Amino acid sequence: MTWEERWHPLREEWVIIAAHRQNRPWSGEILDAQLKAVPEYVEDCYLCPRNLRVSGKVNPDYERIFVFDNDHPSVAENAPESDVPILPIYKSKRANGIARVVCYSPKHNLTLTELEIGEIVELLKTWQSQYLDLGSREEIKHVLIFENKGEAVGVSNPHPHCQIYANNFVFKTIETEVEASQKHFAETGKILFQEIIEVERKDGRRIIAENDDAIAFLPYFARYAYEVFVAPKKTHPNISTLSEEELYDFAAVLKRVLIKFDNLWKVEFPYVMALHQSPTDGGDYAAFHFHIEFHPPLRKPNLLKYLAGPEIGGGNFLSDTSPEEKAAELKAQSEIHYKNK
Fold this sequence. Notes:
Elements: E1 4-8, E2 13-17, E3 66-69, E4 97-103, H1 117-135, E5 142-149, E6 161-167, H2 172-188, H3 192-203, E7 207-210, E8 214-217, E9 228-232, H4 244-265, E10 271-276, E11 291-295, E12 298-300, E13 303-304, H5 309-314, E14 317-319, H6 323-331
Helix pairs in contact: 1-4
């Protein structure tokens, strides 16, 4: 039986580890994760080449990566001014920015996992250029790049793609990580994330993949069962400054992690993937370490990790699993995708 609290140094909060709850009786909802045949091209998919989007624009006959402004943006450059608050303690301000979609491939039936390493490198370079382009604009303070994959996280279109939100504000998680990293550096003279990597490498149990320039691990303080961080070993505040060699090694480790995810239960593994990068507001973020975080919603085959009383009501994340056990499961998976065996 495991019951303990573990400190999450990036979020500066405690995570409750209650791994003995993983096998408790369950009579709730079970997801249907059966594999379904998906064609390479779908006529009514608004992300496939040559198809009409809801905006009335037609996609080009693209053959590689395709980037366009989102037709249903969560933020826009022409956002209206906020209403005057009713009471002094209520505040509001204009939220504006640019929202884009990045299609990984013209093939509707591929996933990020199934791209070749060279194609993943090309995607990483696209992320670099998008971060630099959007982040260079005076009104943009932060560029969030993320992918929601799978019906379990509410994805309506399975075509392989991610989204970019470039806003006039910094998302709270990044703001918290920046403050924690800067405070740690001011107090110790050390990079917080480098110390996390050092501890994980010394322990070794939670390392999922590693090469010369990149590393992937399921952190000691993981909140989700199969939460994995992928990071360059050298500190970069954002993705834009990774060298060609670092990009290749990063892509190789990223692909190994994705294959292990899929091989775990022989399904296209769902997740929320987010690039944690420094804000673009001109501040000093030398202490911030770029990394990707995967937050898969499943804790068992077809069984979601629900956010309930402890998380929503109490404000502390409760993990039903042991990070060491989940890391061991992922490490044991083959690095050859199950579809290719």
